[in-house]
Fold each of these.
Amino acid sequence: MNKAILGRKVGMTQIYGADGAVIPCTVIKAGPCMVSQVKTAEKDGYDSIQLAFETTKESRVTKPEMGHFKKAGIGAFKEVREFRLENSQLKTGDEVKADVFAEGDIVDVIGISKGKGYQGVIKRHGFSRTAESHGGGPVHRHQGSMGANSDPSRVFPGKKMAGHMGAEQVTILNLEVVKVDPELNVIAVKGAIPGPKGGLVTVRNAVKA
């Protein structure tokens, strides 16, 4: 990985390609981000950079965070993320904007998926219903057997059951950058990305392309 930026999901739209085909796209307000720290293998044991995104009031951050920002010579920011970038030429205080990516680049987008609350096994795991015939009882959407009573007399860890669904980190691999607007700091990527409108996302160059 050698390029990354933080942004907010704006929503979906469509763009016409050169051949007239309609391309479904997700618009991301990417950056500007400030480099709040640069870590090196000699000093910290590994190479990475920290990016700070979205300015805020000093009263909205903790004193340790504010001290970290002041040491970097930047203002207060809402979000800070660290990336292990290879061969990065960035320095503390540098600004990273949407033009770090170009049209045609292949990227990965990381975000927190929409929360679905407590869901049953049919919605959460795609289980089938039982037959809704006479005598089926009120268990058409229930899970069914979870294991033998005599042996092993317990439910194995990892068993697919009802529970909390969504609100977890999701990575979408190998999306194409369709359009970049450096003036508005907007990136349009082909396809859908995780999370609601306004959700925080990370855009990085693809690691498996």
Amino acid sequence: MIIKLQKISMKFEKNFFLAVTKRSLSWIYDLLDNINKGCYGLFSVGIVITMSLSYAMEKNEPSDSSIMYAVVSLAAFCVQLNVASPKFDIGILGVAGCFSAVVVTFIACHVYSYVKKVHVFSLEKYTAGIGYVTAMAIQNLIPVFSVIGGIAIINQAVIKLFGVYSIFELTSKLIIGLFKNMKAGYLPGLLYNFLLHVLWLFGFHGSNILEPVAVAKFGLDSNEIFSKAFFDTYVVMGGCGTTICILLALLIFYRKDRISKLAKIGVYTVIFNINEVLNFGLPIVWNPVFAVPFICTPIVVYSISYAATYFGIVPPVVNEVTWTTPVLFSGYMATGSIKGSLLQLFCIMVGILIYMPFLHIYKNIQEVTEKERIRELVGLFKEYEERNEEPNLLARSDKYGSFARILLQNLKADIKDKKLYLLFQPQIKGKGHCIGAEALLRWEHSQYGFIYPPLIISLAKDGGILEELERQIFDMAGYAIRRVSEE
């Protein structure tokens, strides 16, 4: 009786302690939840803004026109959400709505760019003598309403024809419908893997978009080999695309190359199966070079794991493991056997072999592309030189300005690390007597090779580091003079 009372007392104390702790720390949860909903909860809105501004930048639009691209795209995105409907879910503004965000932004930017160039729709003749900002707003009336009105008409047509409240709901129903009549087995899992990674390849959060399918079709209690837990354990090792394979390939075989630098940063997140650094930094998404391995590697890994489980080589997944559990640990915890970890290790080695040739192709393309980028920037700079004009590349809002700002950051880092150097051209007089030398500044960029010297000076001047660069040049020249005097 006493022991029973002690157990009841201990249980009461434990529950009381948990309740008090939860209440006292609730402010931390509220704080983090607010940050999550305020940032990640507006993920689709962020996509609309960044994608529209990037589109304008690629079109070399000035900053004021770039803002209009963002405004038009945001308006079009909000219109297709059909916010007046009682079925509207604010969750669509997060990762769930990224599919429609990308599609609508792409259409809106293209239509807006085309319509505003059509002379018939221009109201320029009515804005003579009006202030610049007001004139620009009036001139954009027809292009803006053409985009918003067109998206609104398309959205209403979708609602009437398919009985849904938005384009987002239509895409969700179409995807879920693909699995409705499929029998359990290997094929549903194969289709799930394929669709999820195709969505991710285009920058859509495939896991969130297919979440209804995973819940309805691939629960752990379905007594089937493939489940969401199976998928998290064997397929998305390192994240979607089985990107732990590309991470290890970079660290092992490309550790001395520039592209391995990103892998060194990404390793801290990929260990926990979070791969956004690689997906958007390398990048993998929207990259035709990595399209094949990004889709094929998960399918091959899935097939190997399915076969190993089907033939009893490895025990089935019987435990749900948090998707952020590191590889090898997750394999053991999910199956209760070291064989699960060994299967993961084998699949990773196969994945590395798949990614390797595409990494080599990507590296070669990057080298060519980088040389072309610096050639274009230097060509633009020389055009300003010929006209005897100040280029001020850092102030530009187009791709040249963006690239110039990246170069400036690299220049600051290399000045700090003292990677710039001087070459000396002798000055000869009379019978071959050297009376001095001209100091020539050189900067060999780790990615782009030798940078045009006048461009270095221009970037340093506009970036506010010219004085620092001058001091370093005097130090290098003084050191060289001392060395020559000593010899």
